[in-house]
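Researcher: Here's the sequence for the chain we discussed earlier.
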Amino acid sequence: MTSDVTNEVEPASTVGASSRYVDWEFAKATGARLSPPGPKVSRREVAAVVADLKAAAAYAREPVAATAQLTSPDDRPALVVDRATWVAANVETFAAVMDPVVATMDRATGPAALRAVGAKVSAAEAGALLAFLSSKVLGQYDLAPSGSPRLMLVAPNIVEAERELDVDPTDFRRWVAMHEETHRVQFTAVPWLRQHLLDLMADLTGSIAPSPEELTERLAQASKNLRQALTSGGTGLAGVFLTAEDRAKVAAATAVMSLLEGHADVVMDEVGPQVIPSVSVIRDRFTARRQGRGTLDNLLRRLLGLEAKMAQYVEGATFVRSVTSVVGVDGFNAVWTSPETLPTPDEIAAPGLWVGRVHG
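Model: Thanks. This is the structure I predict for it:
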């Protein structure tokens, strides 16, 4: 299944320091080639799905704003994309996040050293990873470090999921749009949040990428950490290279992501049956779908750290509901005041700690 509006995606901009060491265009091509085919639909159905998803995204704006009690400026309408276009957008993000890290390493160690490290970052592997993920993601607020952020809905994945769950298509599309619209509101109503998250990503990338001198030590450490990568809740294959300092940074970033994902899950459910009549059925079946993966899929999710991603929804939603039950929505929204009011890893797990620190 392809979208008839993917030409709205901004032109590629993968030109920067990292492009000298990673062929990002090849990563895009690999991801597009390896992405699984979407569900079978006619050309007429494609047009109808695209129109319906755009309408669902527009419909989500008012109830999300009212439920979240956040004021967000109107920006460009949602972009409905296919899997290949989702891959391309995320390759752009990878490249933009890598550029400052590579530029710094280039100055510090020289091009020859960087080539030794860059060889470990395979464009083909990046493309293959994104190809796997391209069939899992229903939507995303693309932070677009080098461009203009935009809400994206991945049409083939939404159609595939609604068919698998056997749920009402209109309700399901609105439900997904509510979640993704909440992310749009988070990043547009809180002006500092986008750059803060991009900075966290860049910092993590710079910390995790080992220098040639560190590589032997990191490989030895990796053999000890591999078992953890295979356990539920681990950080995946990337985690086998993490030092204690790196893990602390990952924990801090994960706390922010848990907040964002949990908040979006809470809003999408609290919008409720007045606008999504079958919301309870959708939530029950979708939760069961998350848990009902096959053995191979579960293994891949653990290796890629996606088990931890699933836990973010639960832990983050528990934090949001717990805080709101004590201080209300206005009190919860103090979380968006500054980076200092974001929850720490300990606070995500124990919401009362955040309430005590922020509200006294």
